[in-house]
Amino acid sequence: MSVLNYNEIKERKYIVLDGDPYEVLDSHVFRKQQRKPVNQTKLRNLITGSVRQETFHSADTVSEADLQHGEATFIFKKENKKDDSVEYWFCEGNDRSKRFELDSSIVGDKMKFIKENKTIETLIFNEQIIGIQIPIKVELKVIEAAPAVKGNTATGATKTVTLETGLEVNVPLFIEEGEVLSINTDKCEYVERVKG
Predict the structure, then answer these.
(1) Main-chain dihedrals φ then ψ at residue 110, nearest 5 degrees
(2) How far apart are the first and last CA of the chain?
(3) How far is Cα 73 from Cα 95, in angstroms, rounded to an integer?
(4) Rounded distance between C-alpha atoms, residue 108 and residue 131, angstroms
(5) CA proximity to 115, closest of 73, 162, 165
(6) Which domains occur in the chain, in start order?
(7) CA 73, chain centre distance (Å)
(8) N or C end of the chain: which has fewer CB within 10 A?
């Protein structure tokens, strides 16, 4: 594990704090009047999902988290009506005999972008899967869309469509059922029509 100085703790870095791995969501290095510079950060615990603010001073150092990357294929989700819980089932690579479940606290809201039988990247810390990574853009098919109203397509108006994963996004009025769209997973918004 490499050691990071206070000013190297930046967005998209992974660090170890109090024995847990954290993702740096935001960082801002600045100097208050005559004092030494500090780095104010916003960190997300990769195990619990909790977010905390942390200030690092110029003398502080932290260890970079030693995260491995693996691959898993999303098989299916199972919803429990009694307690509204959801189970997400994966398998190692493409070996369906090696199935395992990932809790919704680990996968977060990223599953709304993942289709069944899609291979994703996993984050592993101390031989335990602690999270998943998805691409910045994914292609999803429109399964439900209201028809466009004639004469209303030039105004820049939008409508809400439902995609094959159940995700709902706002799109231009010309988008129709059956078309495949490129979706930005960071902003959860429509980018462009891929094919129809």
Answers:
(1) -70, -20
(2) 47
(3) 9
(4) 8
(5) 165
(6) 3-64 (2.30.30.30), 68-133 (2.40.50.140), 137-195 (2.40.50.140)
(7) 16
(8) N
